[in-house]
Amino acid sequence: MSIDRPMELLSLFFGNVIIIYMVVVILSYTVMLTIAFLHIRKDYQLDKDGIDEGNLNAALMKPVTIIVPAYNEEAGVLDTIHSLLSLRFPQTEIIIVNDGSTDDTQQKLISEFHMNRVEKVVRKEIPTEPIRHIYQSNVNQNLWLIEKENGGKADALNAGINLARYPYFCSIDGDSILNEKSLLRVMNPIVSSNDEVIAVGGNVRIANGHHVKLGSVFEANLSKNHLVVMQVIEYLRAFMMGRISLSKFNLVLIISGAFSVFSKKWVVEVGGYSKHTMGEDMELVVKLHRLLKEKKLKKQIQFVPDPVCWTEAPQSYAVLRRQRRRWHQGLVESLWKHKKMTFNPKYGAIGMISFPYFWLVECLGPLIELGGYVYIIIAFFFGGMYYEFAILLTLLFILYGAVFSTASVLLDAWSKDIYPRTSDVVHLIFMSLTEVFWFRPLTLLWRLEGFFHFLLRRKEWGNMQRAGFTKKGSSL
Amino acid sequence: MGMIGLSIEILSRIIIVNLLILMCLAIYVIILHKRKNIQIRRDEKYLKEIQHGWYHYLINKGERADKRLVPENEDEIRVIEKILSSYLANISNPDIHKKIRSFSNQYLSHYYGDQLKRRKWSARMNALYRISDFQIDILLDDCKKQELKKCSKEEWLQLLKIYSKFDINSCIEKIIIEPVLFSEHEYRKLVLNFEQDHLERLLQVFDEVPRPCQFSIIDTLGLKRETDYVPFLEGLLHHEEAEIRIRLLKAIYESGWIINPETYLHFVHSSLWEERLMVTKLLGRLPLDETFSCFKILLEDESWWVRNQAAKTVGSIKNGKEKLQAFIQTSRDKFAIEMVNEILKKGS
Asked: Do A407 and B34 make contact, defined as CB atoms within 8 angstroms?
């Protein structure tokens, strides 16, 4: 008995920690979901074309450089560039950065867009790996290609920033596709705030299963791959349950690297993208916030729910696992690197709210939640008091997982009509109920793995197998 | 223990209630989705039926709107909105605009008048957009009534846009009173679409309008590239606010016209490098013989940007390179010589 007693206390303690954590998270999710709902309801059925048409006037819009880092993207890069060429926007230039690809990426680009080598002096505001050659398209004078030695995505983006002529740049992954008005809408907060907003992230959605032709989404269909469907739900959830509300109070720490716009001046001032971190997109946003607070500037970083960027999601467990591991490692790295901002009143709400929230929910969350899953399994075997504890925890998990996921899916289906087929909507709703039983624990495990990789300081790039956008179904 | 039992009970209830609510919502969303799909098909069918009629009326000089074109319900109005908007966006022809205006005043104004009274913000906004696009001036008084309600900033901007088309006095009056704080970008959206005589009216009250609006007026005048506005801009060059003066110089540079060169000369000695930079660009528009004495000062300026611009500007004017060569021989300023050499090298 004398040994059992401390064990009992210990397990009670763990049980309580997990339960308190869950209650805190559920409460904050409820608040965020409410804010997201109010925000979406306001714009419901608003005709945004009116704003768009106004912004198409060059006198009202700022020119933007679009930077596309590409490393072995031969499958999707042409679609991406075509989608960028058909954007409705007064003035853009497109810089593709071939980061030492070993496949046919460069050759495909050169022959598709009739690119010629040009001599051009590049002002090195941010140091990068050496540039080998610069090409310019004969078809479109504003389409450039940088061929450089491999240095990773951050390095490629930095090279693009050095060549960029315009005050704002937009970073797009080499496998993503934009709607024709996405850039216009993502720039709207910047121009209408008179440059008070220095960075904006757009909403990223999953395009697997869509019918894409020459860079336009012709028909939106939900993928038949369960793993992809779960990611669709996960993206929606992250967006409803986090970004909309955080953005309202200038608390955003992550805007997706797949599609975001930055003011070049500020990015150069913080030294561009960091090469030595896994999550260069988060790292940049944190650095910008830090600079703003240290200089006591009232600038903002925003997330805009409306402009959509379509991206390809991993379709196999192995690739998804690598991606999640990498994301989580990047997240922890950035939090650790800027740990002094945590609970530091000098950094305002970012230090007092965002950082603690990210530490608790995003970074340590997987550990605690997985602990919860393990606890439930063990407790069922022990019975007695543990049994009730386990039921309580299970219920909290269901509330936390299934209810919020389903609510996000519903909110999205109500406010936007992405999927023309009703059966797709039903499928999404059904799948969102199952998340908590299989997909959630899996991603938690992978994220925990990323956490250990951080502790061991492991460096690796999970390369993704790209299928490229093709006609419906064939990319599966 | 009892606590836990109680919590489990409460939680189970919460979850069941939540799931029930979600199930109802799911059914609602699914029905909505189905209905929308049916509606889209109906809209497409209606569009096919009437698009030729509209083409005939707007393009083929059909005199009066066919009865079939008159919408009978909200769905049909939505389709017509699409048709009219695309004609307005893609064809710029005063006849077509006039026809759309008279049709909308006659057949659509009632609907938009009702929309303005709705509690839903997005419905009111959409109505305001259409009133402005289709020029439904019959609703001007209804719009004015909106002011008395709690108007959002977006609604105010749209109202001012409508006034700028149908009642310029109210528009200018409101800009001066400033019911809400607009940003420069928002004023620019407004001022860019002002007709010429309206713009002139606005210039008369330039001193009374808010600062961001003044900025947007100056920028707009620069974009117009007309000589008419240059005297006005030049007249303001002694303004006490530096930002205004810099914007003026920029606008005059962009307009491409200089009427009184001597007005600018004192900027060469300005304490602000931005002013010196802008005047450097401007002087490039005048004959080099008259301006080179100024350029000599600017080439030796303490700011890198000004020196660089001065060397670039002179280098790009006819005979400028020779003048720069001569300048290197006489100048004692190390930085100036360095800059000029760099520009001369780039040119060759």
From this structure: no
Nearest C-alpha in B relative to A415: B29
Work out the number of other CB atoms within 10 angstroms of the CB of residue B134. Answer: 24
Per the CB < 8 A criterion, the answer to whether B225 and B210 are in contact is no
CB–CB contact B126 A47 (8 Å): yes
B35-39, B103-107, B147-151, B196-200: the lowest-pLDDT one: B147-151
Contact A391 B219 (CB under 8 A): no
Local mean pLDDT, 10-residue blocks, chain A (476 residues): 68 84 91 92 83 79 95 88 91 95 94 92 89 94 95 94 96 87 92 91 88 74 91 90 89 89 96 89 95 94 88 92 92 94 94 94 92 87 76 85 90 85 90 91 94 81 44 28
- Return d(Cα A105, Cα B297) in angstroms, integer: 52
Contact A268, A163 (CB under 8 A): no
Rounded Cα distance between A125 and A123, Å, is 6
- Give the pLDDT confidence score for residue B347 in this predicted structure: 58
Out of B29, B85, B184, the one facing A410 most closely (by C-beta) is: B29
C-alpha dihedral (B13, B15, B17, B19), degrees to nearest 10: -150
Which chain B residue is nearest to residue A62, measuring alpha carbons? B185
- Segments making up each domain of chain B, as ranges: 43-62+71-135, 142-226+250-255, 283-348
Looking at the partner chain, which of B11, B29, B129 has a beta carbon nearest the beta carbon of A47? Answer: B129
Kindly indicate the confidence band of residue B188, based on its pLDDT and cuts at 50, 70 and 90: very high
Judge contact between A35 and A248, C-beta under 8 A. Answer: yes
Q: Which residue of A26, A46, A298 is the best one to mutate when testing the B interface, meaning the one whose CB has the most B CBs within 10 A?
A: A46
The answer to whether the Cβ–Cβ distance between A410 and B122 falls below 8 Å is no
Q: Chain B residues with CB-CB distance to A under 8 A?
A: 1, 4-5, 7-8, 11-12, 14-15, 18-19, 22, 25-26, 29-30, 32-34, 36-37, 85, 89, 120-123, 125-126, 129, 133, 183-186, 188-189, 192, 212, 219-220, 223
